[in-house]
Each structure stands twice: as structure tokens, then as C-alpha cells.
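re the bet — no i am not wrong, look at it urself. input seq straight from the record:
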Amino acid sequence: MRVSLVKSKGVCFKMEKKTLTPRKVINSEGKISYSESAQAWNVIKLKKELFEEFPELKEKRSQFSYKLKFFRDESELENAYKKFKGAKDKMMPMILWLYKEN
């Protein structure tokens, strides 16, 4: 579990983040969509395999966050992995491939 301080309107709030860790390997494919209302490419559609593993993602009142790191080359990824292995807060990384479709 990670704890972070968030400052809003001059007041600090303590937020706890519980790491979601799968029980099995999840292999899924999806699409990235453009959101007209937000005028941004901000919609990543998650497939049922992820919801089957983490049913709490369906809870409408719950809030979830993510952290994304995209490395430029293999050596940067290897260095990040070494730091990850030595970190106190263990969490499972998720690998995401981005493809341009014709």
C-alpha cells in the first residue's frame, strides 16, 4: 500500500493506494479511442479478462489511478527493473505495447 499527500485548496489530504496484483497472467488486447467531450485521446477500453481478475474495477463509486512509464530503450527498462526489484513497495508492473493501426 502506498501513501501520498495531496494538497487541495491549501489543505493536505492523506491518500492511500492499494496495489492491485493479479493472481494469474492476463493477456488482453484493446483499443485507444478519441473522446469528443474531452477532445483528447484518453479512452483505453479494458477487456473482460481484467474485470474478471479485479471485480472492484466495476464499482462505480471507487476511484482508481495508474502510473505509466514508457522507456525509450532496453537499457532504461533494465535500470528501472533493477530499482523496482530493490523497492520496499512491491507491485507488479504491467507491460503495454502501443501499435499504430492502418
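see?? The longest helix spans residues 74-86. told u. also The mean pLDDT is 78. so pay up
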